[in-house]
């Protein structure tokens, strides 16, 4: 039993993006659409579940990522990786130009596989975007949904994913 129940109409709610250096500095995707990125990251513990990879595959099916963008796919676990292979999602993502890495923290901890250089921007499904989190303290990390990250990898700029859904 609940003390109160609230209902909200979210039909007009845009996808949201957290701006660099603060997870709580969130804006609608239209406010940052068109900002260039060099990397998109879909995965790690927060954005590497089966449904996350499924939506990325749905958006990328029949599309290619921009040649100047690195798209990293990092499933959250080996079981998730195996299931995504079985369902055909990984083949779609690789066909679009993504790079698959082993289930891990990846660049989220700033140690390997996609570490950002000074001046680079990444749109990521990871949980943190503090300075230096994914490499250089001069890099910018935008946090988003897997759909927004996938759509952005196609165009090379932050993109509203609804045009691909």
Short characterization:
This protein is of the alpha/beta class and 165 residues long. The chain contains five helices and seven strands.
Q: Can you walk me through this structure?
A:
InterPro entries: Acnase/IPM_dHydase_lsu_aba_1/3, Acoase/IPM_deHydtase_lsu_aba, Aconitase_4Fe-4S_BS, Aconitase_4Fe-4S_dom, IPM_dehydratase_rel_enz. Pfam families: Aconitase (PF00330). This is Aconitase/3-isopropylmalate dehydratase large subunit alpha/beta/alpha domain-containing protein. One of its GO terms (biological process) is carboxylic acid metabolic process. With 165 residues, the chain is of the alpha/beta class. Helix content is 25%, strand content 16%. The protein has a single domain, classed as Aconitase, domain 3. The strands form two sheets. The protein has a five-stranded parallel β-sheet. The protein has a two-stranded antiparallel ribbon with strand order 1-2. Strand 1 and strand 2 (26-28) form a beta hairpin. Helix 2 packs parallel to helix 5 (146-155). The longest helix is centred in the middle third of the chain and has 11 residues, at 50-60. It is globular. The mean pLDDT is 94.
């Amino acid at each position: 039993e609940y003390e109160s129940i609230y209902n909200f109409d979210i039909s007009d709610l845009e996808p949201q993006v957290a701006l660099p250096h603060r997870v709580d500095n969130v804006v609608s995707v239209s406010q940052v659409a068109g900002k260039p990125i060099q990397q998109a990251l879909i995965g790690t513990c927060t954005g590497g579940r089966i449904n996350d990879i499924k939506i990325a595959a749905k958006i990328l099916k029949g599309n290619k990522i921009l040649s100047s963008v690195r798209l990293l796919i990092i499933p959250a676990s080996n079981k998730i990786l195996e299931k995504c292979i079985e369902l055909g999602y990984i083949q779609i993502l690789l066909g679009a130009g993504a790079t698959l890495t082993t289930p891990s923290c990846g660049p989220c901890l700033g140690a390997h596989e996609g570490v950002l250089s000074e001046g680079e921007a990444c749109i990521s499904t990871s949980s943190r975007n503090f300075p230096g989190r994914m490499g250089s303290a001069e890099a910018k990390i935008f946090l988003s949904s897997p759909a927004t990250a996938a759509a952005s990898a196609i165009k090379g700029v932050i993109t509203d994913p609804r045009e691909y859904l």
